[in-house]
Design goal:
The protein has about 400 residues and is of the alpha/beta class. The chain has 2 domains: about 200 residues, Rossmann fold; about 170 residues, Rossmann fold. The chain is built from 17 helices and 13 strands. The strands form 2 sheets. Strands 3-2-1-4-5-6-7 form a 7-stranded mixed β-sheet, with helices on both faces. A 6-stranded parallel β-sheet has the order 10-9-8-11-12-13, sandwiched between helices. Strand 9, helix 11 and strand 10 form a beta-alpha-beta unit. The chain is globular. The protein starts with a strand and ends with a helix. Keywords: Transferase. This is Glycosyltransferase. GO terms for molecular function: glycosyltransferase activity.
Length: about 400
């Protein structure tokens, strides 16, 4: 059986987010899949024959138009009225653009579904707008909850990034478990072990040294539990902190002023460094040069940074929350999100115990091989085929 698919590609824009990367890699893999008879790309009410160009994916060159659009988007997200107007207008544009294509399966990789009388699939990345609403802007929460409830009511099939989120969604929505599929993500091929000579030029630009720091990658926001990481790191012996300072990179998230103030104090004491948002070109080298990756997040629908670290040959210390044990497998050291003492002990062990490190690196690379975009496309196509067979 072959299927005809319309894939929404609105998330594929610069700078590329996690959902944008998922949309792009899935689209690329689906293009090569023999059971996809027709694959159309759809964004903002229009069809496109090709995926966006390489500079959009790298995030290295962001135009003034894109910066202005980003400013407008941030303003819209702070206004309840603007959000509602945006929601209704975009919904109308999408619905009009899809008329006449009801014999295709429409797949949204980014939660939202337009009005469409044909078969519909949506990827549900996490339930944080419901379960961690206090970690989002209130106006944005209302918008997301409205759209996600619409998706739950209208999707014929749902895809999640992890088994944890699948089970969470079954419990939350009451939707039959056989309509929800867990399809794991993968890391981009740029994330792999790299020798010092290859990495050093990138590290020098940021004032870093090979194997000379612990890395955190993620949006700077309360849900990522960065304050606990800073507290645990401060408990390490000063000699350890000075030898392997904590390096953080990621966007300024919502309600992050107190976190940034805490990072700044750590920087002033010489054992932390905030790099801001890194381009997709530089980020794989910053991963590969790290001694350790730390990710104490309270909640993740998948936790892609953990997988990127494993693929890069970097040991991982992370929380045992939500989907993270699935992603890290048996290769990481786990702690309760708020257990500062255990986190401190794990950080020190992972930095200093070379025997453990060698085994963790080997186990991590083996575990990472079980994730691929080919697997993601294969299992996503299985969802399409099951839906088509039931029509």
């Amino acid at each position: 059986m072959t299927v005809n698919v319309i894939l929404n590609t609105e998330a594929i824009r610069s700078p590329l987010t996690g959902i944008g990367r998922y949309s792009y890699e899935l689209a690329k893999a689906l293009q090569e899949h023999p059971e996809i008879d027709s694959l159309r790309f759809f964004a903002s009410g229009r069809f496109s024959e090709a995926l966006p160009v390489a500079e959009v994916l790298s995030g290295d060159s962001v135009s003034s138009k894109e910066i202005n659009l980003g400013l407008i988007k941030r303003w819209v997200q702070k206004s309840s009225l603007a959000i509602e107007v945006h929601r209704r207008l975009l919904g109308m544009v999408r619905a009009n653009g899809l008329k006449g294509y009801e014999d295709n399966i429409y797949h949204s990789p980014n939660f939202f579904l337009p009005r469409f009388s044909g078969p519909k699939v949506a990827t549900f990345h996490d339930l944080s707008p419901f379960t961690w609403a206090h970690c989002h802007e209130p106006a944005k929460v209302h918008y997301l909850q409205t759209e996600l409830r619409n998706t739950l009511q209208n999707a014929d099939r749902l895809i999640t990034d992890s088994e944890y989120t699948r089970q969470e969604l079954v419990s939350f929505s009451g939707i039959s478990a056989d309509r929800i599929y867990a399809v794991p993500l993968a890391a981009a091929p740029e994330f792999h072990p790299r020798p010092s000579a290859q990495v050093q030029p990138f590290l020098q630009h940021y004032g870093l040294s090979y194997q000379g720091y612990t890395l955190f990658v993620g949006t700077i926001e309360p849900r990522k539990n960065i304050i606990t990481l800073l507290q645990a790191y401060e408990q390490l012996p000063l000699t350890v902190r000075q030898r392997w300072p904590l390096v953080l990179t990621g966007y300024h998230g919502w309600n992050s002023a107190s976190i940034h103030a805490r990072i700044k104090r750590a920087e002033e004491h010489g054992w932390a460094k905030y790099l801001g948002y890194l381009s997709a070109t530089d980020l794989p080298y910053i991963y590969a040069g790290a001694r350790l990756f730390a990710f104490p997040s309270h909640y993740e629908g998948f936790g892609l940074p953990v997988l990127e670290a494993l693929c890069s040959g970097v040991p991982v210390v992370c929380s045992n929350s939500s989907s993270l044990p699935e992603v890290a497998g048996g290769a990481g050291l786990f702690h309760l999100p708020e257990d500062t003492d255990t986190l401190q002990q794990h950080l020190q062990k992972a930095l200093e115990d070379q025997q453990w490190r060698d085994q963790a690196i080997s186990d991590g690379l083996k575990h990472a091989l079980t994730f691929s975009w080919q697997r993601c496309a294969e299992e996503t196509t299985h969802v399409y085929k099951k839906l088509a067979a039931d029509l």
